[in-house]
Automatic annotation (TrEMBL):
NCBIfam families: kup (TIGR00794). This is Potassium transporter. The chain crosses the membrane at residues 52-74, 94-115, 183-202, 222-239, 251-273, 330-351, 371-397, 418-440, 452-473, 480-502, 508-530. Residues 559-790 form the K+ potassium transporter C-terminal domain. InterPro entries: K+_transporter (IPR003855), K_trans_C (IPR053952), K_trans_N (IPR053951). Potassium transporter. Its main location: membrane.
Length: 793
């Protein structure tokens, strides 16, 4: 374990006799600088885009089928029924609908998502919060401003720069100018996230119900209630096994989906050959024009059903993290796209011959000899599609949690091999209950399809607006290209959105209600988190006051180590002053611990901790900031306390090479490798691979009360470092206490009624049912001390 540490120095003068010795120390620093630069370069190269061999790329393309394309691939189960829910009046309408499906698949999944949006990934991570993280790194649009410039030195903190007078710079300044614009951007991201959560409810419902509906085709005496019951049993089983993760059965997903695509393509070719080869003329867009020219509201509202042919694109982007973009592109262009075109064309050919079978077009178009094998494959594919959407929902909830936009819930890592495979128990059971309610409540595909389409089109609109900012700030595209992309995307998506408005009362209200509920929860939670952070910032204690108390802090310093948890990465938190003014004693060693999440997908372990000293040495006060990305997890087997002390000990060893004193500098330096430090200091940890010197900023500038001239030699510094290590170790053996703030947020008496409801009831309820910080950091209950305080907003 390694840490970034700051060598904090007090002002002092160095005699000429020791200038040679000091020179040797600075030579060592230069060597450390050079070594660290080489090591940092090596680490950065590890996160650059890798070139995969042709064989490996094909293998990854095959594997991506099961994770990325399950949802999109099962759309043929229900598209034509939702397009013509009242039957087919004119056979030519089938050609027009097929033409719309063909060009919808071409424009949105193929051109927009696979070849444009997927390239906007955050180091391989997809989803609305991944786009938001990219924007946060290129502009100061985070509502909680807790970042420091040292965070930008992370190997995973990639961003581009632009000229001050460029269009990108002007857009950046426009976004940063007003808090309302930052808030509007965050709300846009939250709306997209809530709609994807709605997809996590609707996708299993419509996919499994459609697959189970095949029972009625070959067994017509079965009632619809039996089909719904079978679907509910499958759904309960699916959600009940989520805690096992997909690591053990994930290898089955790709073969199942691959077999599904081959099957629907083969059946499609068979139906085209047997029933009507003229459906291939639908590849001409002129039939779209003729379709709408015939007029009628039904043709316009049928876009809601055609919209379902491109559902799954939001899961496609959210599940991107497991595969390189090139593998996803190959899988879509070589397998998914042509197979879907053949499947829809085959169904259209069958429907043209049998228009009265449109309600069960998929199953009725299957040749009788392969009906039951195809039913089994369809059910398995529906389960895989549902699993992909559920996994995407878990990932988005984890990302929202890291950005302070979701109540603290338990996140379980289900795989030792893959970082992204997680399980969120609370969300899993909520999804299951809502999914069963939707399935049993609607009982048919049409209303669920209307709800599903509404959620998907809103996610598409959100992605388009975020991509516009990505193209300007991240890719630095010319404004003409940005305008073309935005206008074309909005024209297509707003057309679908207008059609979905007609179906709000036919089931389209469901995702709106679900999204509104989750949006309320996420907005209120983020507002409360933001106000708590602002309270910490405004009420933090002056360093001059701390120094004025003297080494004893005006109290009895008892043996032991006190870990004071705070939201602040700089300054002394109000909780500390509240603690020492109410209790007559404090621990001999005090460490202020700040755990903060950064807008990066991960923080490497060797760059996780930053350590600095607060005040003079004899105060024995330190600060440790633990940094996490939005995909990093606090695993159950992680020993947070142990790693924290390893970082603290490393800091003291490194600091012993420099003159002691109090520190509050904004200067940063990077110094070499752990091996050099072991050779120099002679007391290192073999498990530590990299160590760097670093500092934090602090709002207050610490000025020593008395500047004293002194002479310090390297040997005396190292001796002092060893003594302090022994002192800290002794205090650690005496006991470690975790001091956490239990801050209660309440609305002011004169606050408006909606704020009182949001803070005093909604936020208070969420705080009551969410996980405590102590559980997340695996703090033993016997070592926990909560300090209560109240503030009003």
């Amino acid at each position: 374990m390694a840490a970034k540490v700051e060598a904090a120095t007090m002002g002092g003068e160095i005699d000429e006799e020791e200038s040679d010795e000091r020179g040797s120390m600075w030579d060592l620093d230069q060597k450390l600088d050079q070594s660290m630069d080489e090591e940092a370069g090596r680490l950065r190269n590890m996160y650059r885009e890798k070139k995969f061999s042709a064989l490996l790329l094909l293998q990854l393309s095959f594997q991506s089928l099961g994770v990325v394309y399950g949802d999109l691939g099962t759309s043929p189960l229900y598209v034509f029924y939702n397009t013509f829910p009242h039957g087919i009046k004119d056979p030519e309408d089938v050609i027009g609908a097929l033409s719309l499906i063909i060009y919808s698949l071409t424009l949105i999944p193929l051109l927009k998502y696979v070849f444009v949006v997927c390239k906007a990934n955050d180091n391989g991570q997809g989803g609305t919060f991944a786009l938001y993280s990219l924007l946060c790194r290129h502009a100061k649009v985070k509502t909680i401003q807790n970042q420091h410039r040292t965070d930008e030195e992370l190997t995973t903190y990639s961003r581009t720069t632009f000229h001050e007078h460029s269009f990108a710079a002007k857009t950046k300044r426009w976004l940063e100018k007003h808090t309302s614009r930052k808030t509007a951007l965050l709300i846009l991201v939250l709306v997209g996230t809530c709609m994807v959560i709605g997809d996590g409810i609707l996708t299993p419902a419509i996919s499994v119900l459609s697959a189970a509906g095949g029972l009625r085709v070959n067994l017509p005496h079965i009632s619809n209630g039996v089909v719904v019951f079978v679907a509910v049993v499958i759904l309960v089983s699916l959600f009940s096994v989520q805690h096992y993760g997909t690591d053990k059965v994930g290898w089955l997903f790709a073969p199942i989906v691959f077999l599904w695509f081959l099957s629907i393509a083969s059946i499609g070719m068979y139906n085209i050959w047997k029933h009507d080869t003229s459906v291939l003329k639908a590849f001409s867009p002129v039939y779209i024009y003729r379709y709408f020219k015939r007029g009628g509201r039904d043709r316009w509202t049928s876009l809601g059903g055609i919209m379902l042919s491109i559902t799954g694109i939001e899961a496609l982007f959210a599940d991107l993290s497991h595969f390189p973009v090139s593998a996803v592109q190959i899988a879509f262009t070589v397998i998914v796209f042509p197979c879907l075109l053949l499947a829809y064309s085959g169904q259209a050919a069958y429907i043209r011959r049998h228009p009265d079978h449109v309600a069960d077009a998929f199953y009725r178009s299957i040749p009788g000899s392969v009906y039951w094998p195809m039913f089994i494959i369809a059910t398995a594919a529906a389960i895989v599609a549902s699993q992909a959407t559920i996994s995407a929902t878990f990932s988005l909830v984890k990302q929202a949690l890291a950005h302070g936009c979701f109540p603290r819930v338990k996140v379980v890592h289900t795989s030792r091999k893959f970082l992204g495979q997680i399980y969120v128990p609370d969300i899993n059971w909520i999804l299951m209950i809502l999914c069963i309610a939707v399935t049993a409540g609607f009982k048919n595909q049409s209303q669920i399809g209307n709800a599903y389409g509404t959620a998907v089109v809103i996610v598409m609109l959100v992605t388009t607006l975020l991509m516009t900012l990505i193209m300007i700030l991240v890719w630095r595209c010319h404004w003409v290209l940005v305008l073309i992309f935005t206008i074309l995307s909005l024209v297509v998506e707003c057309t679908y959105f207008s059609a979905m408005l007609f179906k709000i009362d036919q089931g389209g209200w469901v995702p709106l209600v679900i999204a509104a509920a989750f949006l309320l929860i996420m907005s209120v939670w983020h507002y409360g988190t933001l106000k708590r952070y602002e309270f910490e910032m405004h009420s933090k204690v002056s360093m001059a006051w701390i120094i004025g108390l003297g080494p004893s802090l005006g109290l009895v310093r008892v043996p032991g180590v006190g870990l004071v948890y705070t939201e602040l990465a700089s300054g002394v938190p109000h909780i500390f002053s509240h603690f020492i003014t109410n209790l007559p004693a404090i621990h001999s060693v005090v460490v202020f611990v700040c755990v903060k999440n950064l807008p990066v997908y991960t923080v490497p372990e060797e760059e996780r901790f930053l350590v600095k000293r607060i005040g003079p040495k004899n105060f024995h006060m330190f600060r440790c900031v633990a940094r996490y990305g939005y995909r990093d997890l606090h695993k159950k087997d992680d020993d947070f306390e142990k790693r924290l002390f390893e970082s603290l000990f490393l800091y003291v060893r490194l600091e012993s090479m420099m003159e002691g004193g109090c520190s509050d500098s904004d200067e940063y330096s990077i110094c070499g490798s752990q091996q050099q430090l072991k050779d120099t200091v002679g007391n290192g940890n073999e498990n530590e691979n990299l160590a760097t010197f670093d500092t934090f900023d602090s709002v207050e500038s610490i000025t020593p009360v008395k500047r004293v001239s002194h002479t310090v030699t390297a040997s005396s510094q190292m001796s002092g470092g060893v003594d302090e290590l022994e002192f800290i170790n002794g205090c650690r053996d005496a006991g470690v206490v975790h001091i956490m703030g239990n801050t209660v947020v309440r609305a002011r008496r004169e606050a408006r009624f909606y704020k009182k409801i949001a803070i005093d009831y909604v936020y208070a309820f969420l705080r009551k049912i969410c996980r405590e910080h102590s559980a997340i950091y695996n703090v033993p209950q016997e070592s926990l001390l909560n300090v209560g305080q109240i503030f009003y907003v």
